[in-house]
């Protein structure tokens, strides 16, 4: 899991320093548990009409709603073949509507309720920016999971003046109901969607057709079983693995246990009842037992309750206070709050000054609830519902029958239970609290908050009191409708520890989303802990004197500074902190919401929070957060979830919080739709021991992401009665968006009870790839695959590698059966787009590709969505299956697993089979060169003994009659032969010391005769002990013998054969070299020089010749062997980098590994290169030579 340093979070998420928790024991955004199917009839459907719908539209909206829902029930009955219809509907009217016989007169009795209402169907005043007023479903979870809610505009209901319009509206509603209730998705494409196109084209004819089935059963709700096309690229097939819609519906909880085929009922018209939200009615029930007398717990309760009632609760709210131990007592009856009278002071100070001495084990929870119900009934006047805030330790043994009676009473009276566990302690993964209280809150759509026990000796830390105040404020907010704007919002909350006198400094931001006024509050343990100086600085830099506007309340341990008409922007503050080491100061800034901008955050998880086993990979935990401005999604915001483990570690310190970024990216797993305002993330790798349970508090913070957040704008002309737009593909394509003004919001979810059955092993697989795309270039026939990189543990980290298969059937690809596609790239970090080009040599057939990721622990992610491709036949290529079968192993496994695929698959621009051949050739060539060099080395070593240098003469005979020392050139049948010869006979030396050759001493006839006789010679001469070469035994004339060189690689060459310098090179002469900036003074003889074996494209005899670098008139820079570059001496004008000794050939691997040197020669100065660098094509600068002895 990604761990964000605490210091960073303190800088970026200060406004959400929430110190309490909220638990919803619900695994979904909506209230699906209230909607049940009983004997084929749905009961409990709630339709909530927005407060912004004007009252003058009341009768038209209600009439249209009635007509549409009645027609909807009939169509639903037909669609499900009598399996379901609508039995009853509850319509929640806006609180602002006044009942009037002329403008707003429901046809059924109206009942007031004090319980906040969350509808399954939302009727909005303004049309949706994209879908207008037609119904659409927000779906945040995967296949088979219910949707969050259905939304439709009031314009649709007002426009149902004809039977045709009613039928059409009901048809649209049935289509969305199948997604909302049963978790299926659209079986068609979407406009401008990159994954689910609106149309698809035939690969042969290029004819386009709609991306859906041709015939839809039962009024077009979904494709029939027979007509379903699993390989169609639509959202339903991708998320539901191609299963037919009816297969998923029939296996839902509505129909999985039904044995009958359907209902024969003829009365399928729903009944209606109407409710209207009343002003909140709240009863605070406080546990008054001896346990509250420890560590100033009761004192903190009294101060927190006073802060809530006197300063936080809006006017017109009704609230009462009940205390309970073994009996229950009303200390303050339900009263309506106002700012004119002293009612707030009376109710806020109603708690006893000291707690009772009755043991905790004797408390009667049922007594407290019954007393609260009685108090509510006294002021109800026929009103239903109410909110109970239960403040208790949560410990003790409540009998099972008593708890069952409490649940029954709660449901009967339509009460909402909010539980605050104070104080709550955790030791070694276990919480000392009754889990049935959490279940009670969940059944009533309430919440459970906790305040951790942080007592020190006989005292409790100030942090506990601040946490309790925040918890009470949160429960009070839950007692109001979500659209309420007069409930205080926490803008900033920060604690400053004591111990040494210091200046506490901080800042907070008041943006346009808040109301005009704000309140700056300082909470202290002792008034002496706060210094005299309290300074506020406005965003414009002005110092705000708080001396005359401070308000002290010793009964709440608080100092308040009310900021009226607060300037927008960043405020800063500083004050003197004199708190002791175990205490501190707590700063909190609150404000109300701006009436013109209603930004809300709602949080839920994929599972019930009461029992999460996050190591169960079949049911992973996913965090969801919905961010909306009224009914419009906020895009590109920063949404961060905070997880803090409850309790203390082994050192007694609190656990460090974890911060998790949530995303609205539409990658498909877990976020299935981009741009819907729902941000999500997997929850994995929570740090706790195997087999141990832990509890984590979850809260979510959201802001404008440095002014990058935006929202779609409303288009009043968007609604068109005959235009159908289906929500949603991989993303919501908003055409026009505007920047959202700066904002900060926070919401708390509560406690996640996490279990860990794994033994510290990596069991979490990569998340599923659901945006795989394939495109075929019809020119190059290269297939491009593109997808978003998954993580290592779901959507965390980076996977280890990819695997992909190619199949001829969609079902095989879904099961990941087929030919493996090799050469895939290494996975990048999660969320990064990746692509690869692949050559697939299977033509004129439909092929299917699937991809999955694997982590280092060999955990495989689920197979991706299946994509199809069709590659046309190359126009100039004849496909030969047998000729290419051997190269299949280059890109895929050699066996196609029986799918009839005969052509290879490989990465574009690279063939692994070609590389194998190249490697083999290079290796063989290097081996041959090594053997040749070794033989040459042995031959040269054995011929090192030579005659004395002064007796060696060189002869050269050309076809023009010109003779040169050291060589013989002969023209035979138009080809030039080179004879390496050495004059051995001392008689051929003149008295002047001048070399005598047969050219000067013999007649032409004599030379021709000697040449003819030497034709038959097949071996070289032998040497005597004096290292001189004797005359051949077959020659009796007085002329020096001539040594004829043979191939040093030939097995026929005797070991005694000597090789002299080649005939085409002149003897060394210093005068022949050009001037150099360095001296050349060799101190070695020819015998010490290493052999030279040319490797250029020359004749066999040239490979046998021996030459030395100092004997060449001009040495090319591209030498085919290595020298010691470090031995060179350079002048000042030369470069510091040694000159390259050879130039490699492009794409020629034969030069990758030069032949090994048999001996390292002495340092040889390099001659400057003149002219072009010798390449592989011109390195054969020597003339063609032939061994004369082999002619």
UniProtKB/TrEMBL annotation:
Residues 1095-1106 have a biased composition (Low complexity). InterPro entries: CLCA_N (IPR013642), CLCR (IPR051266), VWF_A (IPR002035), vWFA_dom_sf (IPR036465). It comes from the Eukaryota. The chain crosses the membrane at residues 917-941. Residues 281-472 form the VWFA domain. Residues 1-30 form the signal peptide. SUPFAM superfamilies: vWA-like (SSF53300). GO terms for cellular component: protein-containing complex. Residues 1079-1106, 1144-1191 are annotated as: Disordered. Keywords: Membrane, Signal, Transmembrane, Transmembrane helix. This is VWFA domain-containing protein. It comes from Meganyctiphanes norvegica (Northern krill).
